[in-house]
């Protein structure tokens, strides 16, 4: 699986619209054997399946499962249906995510903000991957890919998004640990890619301002870079390049110097002040 997902079984979460749908379109265009879409929005999911089915012209089996990945109990039930109806995926893209923003941590609500953010962004990818990973490992002669869409916020703290940053930091740590475990256990057929983009203009971060050296990213550009990294089995994709620079500076500069130089100087710490998010 170095050039295409042709003939592969692909599963994407948060796939009814936005970038999840764009990954699905890419898989259909490359004639994947099947593309399985997970989302909680039943109406949008149905429209997406119909439209992708028309595009595929029968070359790719497109099906969907209505599931809220924040409901951790529903993940195992839905995964069982996928294995029975479609088969274990060869490519898993953990794309679903939510953000509650423009509030300080003490203004958030545990039930409305903290719990669902941690469940969707951090726990759901773990639960979903745990369901399908044994099948990927067992099929040792078939290349498999796991893509975990994290965020630059997980490697660089930012005011007004404390819980979101925590959820993505957890995702990054787990994703890279999983990669190392698979390598250590000699399961080289399964490769994990962790993606840490800055803001993307999908509407999810409407109102957020791109800091210096990190303009708001175009979704088409991000999807293309993620897709190429996934096919190549790249361990980490940081977008834009300045995300890696910021991470490096955070590691070598004293905290207060970093705060002044990067956080305040580059505008990182002010980037969420006008955040509104998707309606």
From TrEMBL:
Any Pfam family: adh_short
Q: Which PROSITE patterns would you find in this protein's record?
A: ADH_SHORT
Q: What is its EC number?
A: 1.1.1.105
The record's listing under InterPro entries reads: NAD(P)-bd_dom_sf, Sc_DH/Rdtase_CS, SDR_fam
Q: Which UniProt keywords apply?
A: Oxidoreductase
Please state what class of enzyme this protein is.
Answer: oxidoreductase
Molecular function (GO) terms for this protein are: all-trans-retinol dehydrogenase (NAD+) activity
Identify the stretch annotated as signal peptide in this record.
Answer: none
Similarity comment: Belongs to the short-chain dehydrogenases/reductases (SDR) family.
This one is known as All-trans-retinol dehydrogenase (NAD+)
Its ancestry begins with:
Bacteria, Bacillati, Actinomycetota, Actinomycetes, Micrococcales
């Amino acid at each position: 699986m170095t050039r295409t997902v042709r003939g592969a079984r692909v599963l994407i979460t948060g796939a009814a619209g936005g970038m999840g749908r764009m990954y699905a379109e890419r898989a259909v265009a490359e004639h994947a054997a099947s593309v399985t879409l997970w989302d909680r929005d039943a109406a949008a999911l149905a429209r997406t399946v119909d439209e992708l089915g028309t595009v595929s012209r029968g070359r790719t089996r497109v099906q969907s499962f209505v599931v809220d990945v924040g409901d951790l109990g529903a993940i195992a039930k839905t995964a069982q249906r996928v294995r029975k109806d479609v088969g274990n995926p060869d490519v898993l893209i953990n794309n679903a995510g939510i953000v509650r923003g423009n509030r300080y941590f003490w203004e958030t609500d545990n039930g409305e903000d903290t719990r669902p953010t941690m469940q969707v962004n951090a726990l759901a990818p773990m639960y979903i991957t745990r369901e399908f990973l044994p099948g990927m490992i067992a099929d040792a002669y078939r290349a498999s890919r796991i893509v975990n869409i994290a965020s630059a916020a997980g490697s660089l703290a930012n005011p007004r998004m404390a819980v979101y940053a925590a959820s993505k930091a957890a995702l990054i740590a787990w994703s890279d640990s999983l990669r190392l475990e698979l390598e250590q256990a000699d399961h080289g057929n399964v490769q994990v890619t962790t993606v840490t983009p800055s803001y993307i203009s999908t509407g999810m971060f409407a109102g957020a301002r791109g800091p210096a050296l990190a303009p708001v990213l175009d979704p088409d550009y991000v999807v293309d870079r993620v897709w190429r990294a996934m096919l190549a089995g790249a361990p980490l994709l940081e977008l834009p390049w300045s995300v890696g620079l910021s991470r490096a500076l955070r590691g070598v500069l004293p905290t207060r110097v970093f705060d002044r130089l990067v956080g305040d100087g580059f505008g990182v710490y002010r980037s969420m002040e006008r955040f509104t998010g998707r309606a």
